[in-house]
Amino acid sequence: MQSVQAYSVRQFQQWVNNNAGSLLRAVIYTIGHFFIAATCVWYFTGASFSAAITDAVVEPLINGLWYFVLDRFWASRFS
């Protein structure tokens, strides 16, 4: 079992290394979106702070994943 875990860790590290640029852009995009989404929800809807933060976290996590998939697709087709 130990060797399977070590293999999985190495495989994950290799995946991260191969996708470092896309991952970094996705993380930066997602963090920025947290702030933008919370501000918009709070300002435009008058929602409570906890509701604005919840939306600000859940939605950009999904958007960040979508961006990563889109970026990998784009890079594979147009680079």
TrEMBL record:
It comes from the Bacteria. The keyword Membrane applies. The chain crosses the membrane at residues 23-44, 50-70. Keywords: Membrane, Transmembrane, Transmembrane helix. It holds the Pfam family DUF2061. Residues 24-75 form the DUF2061 domain. This is DUF2061 domain-containing protein. The lineage of its organism: Bacteria, Pseudomonadati, Pseudomonadota, Alphaproteobacteria, Rhodospirillales.
